[in-house]
Amino acid sequence: MSLDGGKQNEDAVAFMPVVSSSARVTGPRRVELVSEKVVYRTNLQKPAKVGLLMVGWGGNNGSTLTAALVANRNRVSWRTRTGRHGMNLADALDRAQVLEPELRDQVRSELSSMVPMRAPFYADFVAGNQAERADNVLPGGDGDKAGHLAQLRGDLRAFRAAHPGMDKVFVVWTANTERLARVDEPGVHDSADALLRAIQTSHPQVSCSTLFGVAAALEGAVYINGSPQNTFVPGLVDLATRCGTHVAGDDFKSGQTKLKSVLVDFLVGAGLRPVAIASYNHLGNNDGRNLSEAAQFRAKELSKTNVVDDMVASNPVLYPPTNNNNNKSHQLMHMMGPDHLVVIKYVPAVGDSKRAMDEYETEIFMGGRSTIAVHNVCEDSLLAAPLILDLVLLAELLTRVKTAGKDETFRSMNTVLSLLSYMLKAPLVPEGRPVVNALFKQRAAIENLFRALVGLPPVDPLCIEQRLA
Amino acid sequence: MSLDGGKQNEDAVAFMPVVSSSARVTGPRRVELVSEKVVYRTNLQKPAKVGLLMVGWGGNNGSTLTAALVANRNRVSWRTRTGRHGMNLADALDRAQVLEPELRDQVRSELSSMVPMRAPFYADFVAGNQAERADNVLPGGDGDKAGHLAQLRGDLRAFRAAHPGMDKVFVVWTANTERLARVDEPGVHDSADALLRAIQTSHPQVSCSTLFGVAAALEGAVYINGSPQNTFVPGLVDLATRCGTHVAGDDFKSGQTKLKSVLVDFLVGAGLRPVAIASYNHLGNNDGRNLSEAAQFRAKELSKTNVVDDMVASNPVLYPPTNNNNNKSHQLMHMMGPDHLVVIKYVPAVGDSKRAMDEYETEIFMGGRSTIAVHNVCEDSLLAAPLILDLVLLAELLTRVKTAGKDETFRSMNTVLSLLSYMLKAPLVPEGRPVVNALFKQRAAIENLFRALVGLPPVDPLCIEQRLA
Amino acid sequence: MSLDGGKQNEDAVAFMPVVSSSARVTGPRRVELVSEKVVYRTNLQKPAKVGLLMVGWGGNNGSTLTAALVANRNRVSWRTRTGRHGMNLADALDRAQVLEPELRDQVRSELSSMVPMRAPFYADFVAGNQAERADNVLPGGDGDKAGHLAQLRGDLRAFRAAHPGMDKVFVVWTANTERLARVDEPGVHDSADALLRAIQTSHPQVSCSTLFGVAAALEGAVYINGSPQNTFVPGLVDLATRCGTHVAGDDFKSGQTKLKSVLVDFLVGAGLRPVAIASYNHLGNNDGRNLSEAAQFRAKELSKTNVVDDMVASNPVLYPPTNNNNNKSHQLMHMMGPDHLVVIKYVPAVGDSKRAMDEYETEIFMGGRSTIAVHNVCEDSLLAAPLILDLVLLAELLTRVKTAGKDETFRSMNTVLSLLSYMLKAPLVPEGRPVVNALFKQRAAIENLFRALVGLPPVDPLCIEQRLA
Amino acid sequence: MSLDGGKQNEDAVAFMPVVSSSARVTGPRRVELVSEKVVYRTNLQKPAKVGLLMVGWGGNNGSTLTAALVANRNRVSWRTRTGRHGMNLADALDRAQVLEPELRDQVRSELSSMVPMRAPFYADFVAGNQAERADNVLPGGDGDKAGHLAQLRGDLRAFRAAHPGMDKVFVVWTANTERLARVDEPGVHDSADALLRAIQTSHPQVSCSTLFGVAAALEGAVYINGSPQNTFVPGLVDLATRCGTHVAGDDFKSGQTKLKSVLVDFLVGAGLRPVAIASYNHLGNNDGRNLSEAAQFRAKELSKTNVVDDMVASNPVLYPPTNNNNNKSHQLMHMMGPDHLVVIKYVPAVGDSKRAMDEYETEIFMGGRSTIAVHNVCEDSLLAAPLILDLVLLAELLTRVKTAGKDETFRSMNTVLSLLSYMLKAPLVPEGRPVVNALFKQRAAIENLFRALVGLPPVDPLCIEQRLA
């Protein structure tokens, strides 16, 4: 589908200078302040149309978002391609059981004409229980990855051709969680060239989601991964950089994890020490079903458990670092961070209504304990679907922003758009850059960017002038 | 008791320049950036001793904090005065049932020699069930407020005299919640002079907590109110300003409200619209018992329900403002903010172990609903007691900070220390200044002050240099 | 409406002899076994039609049940009377927001023709916020109770006349909770004659619900009270006895209380001692709105808090009785039973979706504690509506049962049908008979009656023959 | 240790006749009532001393119970044997961290002299993480099962010899959950003789818990299994029958499962249909640690998930049976019973404080849903330890009870004491007899037995005489 950019077609470019200050540690107790005037240049020409291709369009997230956009057609319009097999979007919406029947009725006729394109299906990467549902697949199994890449690139070009004025295309993986690809074999995932070669030989460790990423990069589309698997192998990021496009990931951050990154940030920031975090989920949609197999769950578990690492590390008073990394006994682990477990289970009877039950056990003053138990009920797809919109809109803006420092050379955003991590559970960041999970910091980064684009300094809640006599 | 400031007795004063930038709205779509170099001057001479007088010392918070300080004596030392009546601190600690018996044993002998001073007791302001417990009171009931004021001032002077080198004294109200004082009568609470006159006539609407504040101001002590009643009538703030001292309040923010200000900030910030917040508490300590009467509960309820107001107001997309303020029908109220209720109940069997049960009902995408239920168990006093330390330490620092703008005139902090609101449920702010309840903003304000004091700019999670190609 | 009894029109009467054994305490440590053959006689002629008149038909419970019956019309048929004012049932169903829109659509046309009869409205007995909704009332306010009684009796007779073959009529109060009637004035509520006289003088303490009960008794209808107020003053029970009809009450037992009577029964039975029970509710339907005023809530609170009394009394090891009833200090109360509180709040945003949050604090082995927190979400009316059916069906059966002991005289069921207490929160029992709240006992009583009616002995899970070698 | 029976040494035997009635299905719609006079004979001579040997004495349950008994010495006395290796009970109690330090201090000196006997340790049956803790084991690994049996029998005989007057000995397995023994090989577990032969050859599928059972049977001791593994292979029950002793199992029923068997019984009994039950647990004691391995967890999971089977089967209206047992698709499973999952996780930071989080999703009237979420915190051992006492006391009584029917032949209780299932999660029953999990039925069976022993009929809550006019 294509998102219509509306009436504003300004040709202008806005330049905004902002004084950017940061601190540089220059000695044991010495910190030097570094100030630099940074100029932000924003291309104000918004695209007439933005194309959005969702991998897994017929899933709950895809069908929900599409129906919502149709329902809000005053703001948004889109077109669809036709395919031969497969469930149309109206039927997918009924299967999802997310939206109210009356709403579904009102968008049914329009959605009935939308049929997803065929996609590769590599059974080795998804749960065995998914095979029966995968009825709209390209032929060749996992033995013709080069052919699939050619087909996907052709589909992308045809999509553009069918929509004149569609300047930018965003591909979002909203499909199933895959198992983690094994990336330990040299010469497969470690560079763009290696990856392209591996596709030619249909290497078994090239996942379907990575293949979509390769197609997107080669066709100049931004690629966003809404599932937790390791789609972004080094070779894919390398390729996107070479092609001058962008990527973002991983895993839509919609519910339990979002709340957790807020609560732990709050607790640790207040000097209260979480000693145990137990997170249980169950859901009955196809996401839950796919995750009921161990390999797929493992990918998800990793993306959900790393979320407190940076907050723990931020407070060495509460969590003193330990010297002995070899000794992984429970006592030492206990000192290094909270016990943290994540469980996801498939319970058909609750459908798309996801249940999250969390317990936070916290050590407080004088060895006391505080126990916080949270029970959260929500339609999973109603939290995830709007994130897709937010991701695309923010990513699109970022493609139009450049900054220059004192060397007066304008640089684009990094290939990896880490600013999108507010909506993503396991933030992908440029290599060597720090991962930030704390949600309020992620949000403040976006807010401060918006301010910088119009020449305003970062938010400073100190407001010293409000505090003085 | 007095907190020993330790060995550092630097005489120096540190000056730190910081560029402070803010935005000024100059037209419908025009904002002008205002930059000013601000110099922060910190008096590095920390007091040799800091005196802390807790009103309600024998309550759970006071006895818990005292025992903790004794137990941590390596860092802290203190002296006590002797009084004739009243339960000693060791017995108070046993009654509180907060700390472990073994810990209590180890501090018992020291605490046994600490006996609270006598205090005024104005029965009209506290619950009827408190009379039996109030066995250490000054004579005169509520008919001799002038005499009480003189006695309290004498006690403060004696306290200072008994501890040479104690430069600063902090008085913290940790006692019972009083009913709200009625402040509608002109000429009673509206100026320092009026208030002092009202004390002379033992005006019935001058509360005990206000009287302590008057004594503190007149003796140059900082006064902090850890309960929710309206202690800080305009006349008391006026008096503190005239005396050049400081105040902060109201109501220690320890548990449920703190969590709420985080969760609602998160939800509203993420574009999710809370439509109902139901907060239930029960506890069995004397705080709960006192709050079981309606007038006292009303004061508490007010301090707990205003906590989401600024967050609701911050997002006019979620909560569109309404024109018709006269029409308070439920439909309109619904549009103006979430339904919000707070219940506190006295349940002796749970003792100091406070139970909070909250439900957040949130409207999400396409009219969907998300329900978050939270059950929180915690020893109330173990959350509140360390706040007293934090409040005193931060307030003490603030008394040593001055800033100057381009006019090069150094100004002290406002009489009302709004920066302490991170620890306080219903932040008292200088008149006309905005109230901020969002916890992360409150914390960032403190963090940015600390940075400014050493010449660093505010935290900016954007870190644009980490995001570039 | 009338419930069609179906095809079975047997004329027979079934006699079933059962040996009933019970124990009689005859000395300090002596118990004598009393065995008696009891003959149960059941009139097998089921009524061709059963009439059901719901007071508060247009409320959530009434409209939900009616729509459900329409939707299940294969089993049930009914007719309606027409009135001039008032919301029809289809509109009431929409207002209730309980059932799915599609279901509502399918029963709309039928329900549109059903309009409730007018009823008296005594504003003094319900919350002030109910006046705007009460738009279908008989004239005369509370000054013409005799006229209202005549009108109600006339309505009942007309109802019967309009439905030939309708042998039995059941009147169920599903309307608002009233405040408790004050019954301390002699000569008003204490006998049937006094009550009838009080109606003639429009005595202010004769409630609307009692007036309906009087009309029902005089017209030979069974009367069931689904709200918690003290409808069944002695004079009303007296009158029903005199008229040879039956009554049952009070207050539909649908959710939180039902669960509580199960959990406390389990805990106390297992030797675990509940020391505190905190029950919080909020809901946004009209029931919640009416209960938001103190007098109406008081009636509800009483019906909900007595529910554990018999279980506490059943285990004197856990809850030793105390001699000194005058001393109501907290320590003693603590010994006499658990701290128990019930809170109900009106939260419009959650509508008919009732939220119950309970905490059970239990003392276990060696002074340990167990904390059980329960969060329960349910459409209130979907739990209550089917209870109305169960109550009527069971009550109807009971009107056809008689038993005889060795004197061979057959006796009917008592005027007060205490067997219906499985569906009622505050069981009304014949004077001097014990109140049983334990839910499993209430259910076993019904099950054992059904068994006795076919000549089977009570359920005995011992099944000794299954335990032997 | 030995439990002292106290002063009552009656020699008498009590005979009590009770009329036992049951129903026999004799045709499609015909049921015949069968009445029989049953005589209960109770040997009133209580044992002077009862010996209790706990396997896993040094674990949390064993040490907690022992300390409690010491603390209640007025009622109970005991002796201990001395061993050479191993942690003494006082140290075990400290490790358990269940009881208050002061209580531990007061029993320390006495417990310090109690040292567990050595036991076999078959590493293949327990989690790998248990090896370091198993420091008090018999030599031979799992290669000398015959030698171990001889040693255990010798220990039992020595225990009896050391305590003159100790008539009865009870052996209770309170040790770790073992993995399930594989019992599919013929000629190993299927008869007493086969089992004894398998021990002679140290067959790898003879578990340690079964070996203890064999020793107990051969020495005439009652054996109770407090863990979930399949200790009671057919050959062991056969052997106990041959030796004239008794067994009971499996798995102490202390918390979450107990509550579940109550809630599901209540819901199904009330016509509400549970469609999903999700049960999550985490705990940090050694039980949790051992269960963190898959094989041990599997045994536990089975004992916890079968608990609703009989209740589901009891209501074919809610759960209609399905014909096609081969088709195990999710749709069909859904029709056959609720989705039911059980998760147990090891979280060291919470220690012995077990956390259970359950969600019950129930379908109610007209397709509505009710969601009940439960959060339960409890010291695991404080719930389990008193069960050991109850089990032994009830089992001891049952060894003194005989009943006779019309053939006047007295029969003992079956080898398998199914009446103990009130305290056991996965009730072991005599072969071919029905399993009852409903907790109130289990309790009523015990209550009715006690009544029968004194000649009273079963409890009948109908109390028809209370219901009549």
TrEMBL record, chains A, B, C, D:
It is found in: Cytoplasm. Residues 255-381 form the Myo-inositol-1-phosphate synthase GAPDH-like domain. The keyword Protease does not apply. GO terms for cellular component: cytoplasm. One of its GO terms (biological process) is inositol biosynthetic process. Pathway: Polyol metabolism; myo-inositol biosynthesis; myo-inositol from D-glucose 6-phosphate: step 1/2. It holds the Pfam family NAD_binding_5. It catalyses: D-glucose 6-phosphate = 1D-myo-inositol 3-phosphate. Keywords: Cytoplasm, Inositol biosynthesis, Isomerase, Lipid biosynthesis, Lipid metabolism, NAD, Phospholipid biosynthesis, Phospholipid metabolism. Its main location: cytoplasm. InterPro entries: Myo-inos-1-P_Synthase (IPR002587), Myo-inos-1-P_Synthase_GAPDH (IPR013021), NAD(P)-bd_dom_sf (IPR036291). Its cofactor is NAD(+). The keyword Hydrolase does not apply. This is Inositol-3-phosphate synthase.
